[in-house]
Amino acid sequence: MEKIASGQLDLAGLLPSQAIATFVEKPRVIIAGGYGTGKSVSLCTRMAYRMARTPFNRGIILRLHAADLRESTMQVWDEVLPTSWLRKGGRTRSKGMERDVLKNGSVITFGHIYDTQKSKQHIASLNVSDIAIDQAEEVQEDQYLKLIARTRFRAGISRSITMALNPAGHSWHWRRFYQGAKVLKGHPHPLLKDRPWIYLKESSIALQVATIENTPQLGGYLPQGFYEDMRTEFPPEYIARYLDCSFEDFEGKLYKAYDLESAHNIPPLSVADLEQMDIVEWGIGIDTGGAAPWAIVRVARDKWGRAFAYDEFYKANATIREVATWIQRDPHWYEAIKVIDYENRPVMTELAQYNIHCLPSRKKSKVANIGRVNGYFTPVPYIQHPITKKYGAPRLYITDECTWTKREHDRALWKQSDTGENKPDPHQPDHARDALEYILVQLPEPQKKMLPTKLDFLQQVDPSSASFWKACKKIDKRRRDQGNDLREAHTMLNESDTSLLPEADTESLDIVEAFYGW
């Protein structure tokens, strides 16, 4: 048995849900999971396993957009597939021909579903046994139906369509594979044994995987603290969907934590006020207009991760000169990160003539971007309110200067849909909302080292006590270091020299561990 290197295919290290997704024999396998559940790893592992066990097989890994396929899914595939399984010269990564050929003759190709040319059908000639679709919540039902007829390669071998997705409410995926299915519980971990886990129909198996399955506490691979941070900062509906894998629809307000009377609203802040607040980043979000209003929102973020929307421009039929003049009246305009709607590149060119160089907004799903803004609106235990000085405050504050920004966020609603597709209500104005969203999505998340410690909290309330405990901490650290030095010396004196012992043969041990795991 070949020893598989770290970071490559590891069947013995699969989580329970990943093992089921990899080995189950069903024509349709659906892996719905929260953030960080290893859905793409499951998808790629299943494809690798099925292509390796059947010689001269054919499979394809798909995603809606080509850029996302190359930047995300193909990178996961390259990490999963052992390079020793490839035929010599079997990996091709030229544009238009991206495929891997295994030593047993099986071929895995990569493709995208969406074409800007409506008449072009680049998947029309597909002839494979296995199709794997990553981020399948992006795919429409009619696109899925067209793919069913493409799994016709060779009689006598099993055929399968596998999809990995984030839950997206009562979408067509939920209706086809979860609604009316036989529900099984009994996850092997005690914390999850009473949760719905597997949904069975005659020709399909669908998994509902919560993020907690992949936490270190349950033997998973997520970084320490990732899950806890998400539960702290996400609003309740996002916790339900993106951590607990709920298929419930979003309803009501887009930003449930925010209203015109909430703690997010603060008095005006001048640039001089902000400069006294440990600001580390300045930003400008731009939503272009014409007959509809232009909306520009200025944002400053401090070292604790608190963002302050402190000024806005909101005007229909504004000229580029007016916009440029308003942007440049702030002393920090040049150093600010400036983000504009990615579809308005002509406006980017015009603003560049005024030395205003903008980044295009990130092309992510609207629901994901709304979730990022909601994360700023959600109270966080370690954040202190800038006015009341109380902890458990949000990370986003809107000053009274930003009238339209406040109004649009207060009135924003989810669109009621019978299809389960979650979108904001198009009848509600979204110009200032989009401008703020562009810049908040673009700003990097604050580093953990920037977050306040308990001593920082104490410094705010009682500086003399904080100084005392800082001194105690230094003394304690010095004593611990001295103790570590003594223990290390003791170990060196008592241990025998084992450096000349022969290297242990671990290959047999690896085989035993793999067999014991599955």
β-sheet strand percentage = 15-25%
Helix percentage: 25-40%
Low-confidence stretches: 1-7, 496-518
Q: Number of helical runs?
A: 16
CATH superfamily of the largest domain: P-loop containing nucleotide triphosphate hydrolases
CATH architecture designation of the largest domain: 3-Layer(aba) Sandwich
CATH class category of the largest domain: Alpha Beta
Question: Termini, distance in Å?
Answer: 15 Å
Identify the overall geometry: globular
The number of distinct structural domains comes to 3
Helix/strand/pairing category: alpha/beta
Q: Roughly what is the average pLDDT, rounded to an integer?
A: 85
Question: Largest beta sheet: what is the strand line-up?
Answer: 3-4-5-2-6-7-1-10-9-8
CATH T-level fold name of the largest domain = Rossmann fold
- Rg, alpha carbons: 27 Å
Question: What is the tally of beta strands?
Answer: 19
Q: What oligomeric state is this?
A: single chain
Question: What does this entry look like structurally?
Answer:
This is Phage terminase large subunit N-terminal domain-containing protein. Residues 30-179 form the Phage terminase large subunit N-terminal domain. By secondary structure, the chain is α/β, with parallel strands linked by helices. It starts with 15 loop residues before the first helix and ends with a helix. Strand 17 and strand 18 form a beta hairpin. The protein folds into 3 domains: 11-242, P-loop containing nucleotide triphosphate hydrolases (Rossmann fold); 265-451, Nucleotidyltransferase, domain 5 (2-Layer Sandwich); 453-482. It has a 10-stranded mixed beta sheet with strand order 3-4-5-2-6-7-1-10-9-8. It has a 7-stranded mixed beta sheet with strand order 11-19-14-13-12-15-16. Mean pLDDT is 85; it is low at 1-7 and 496-518. The chain has 16 helices and 19 strands. The protein is globular.
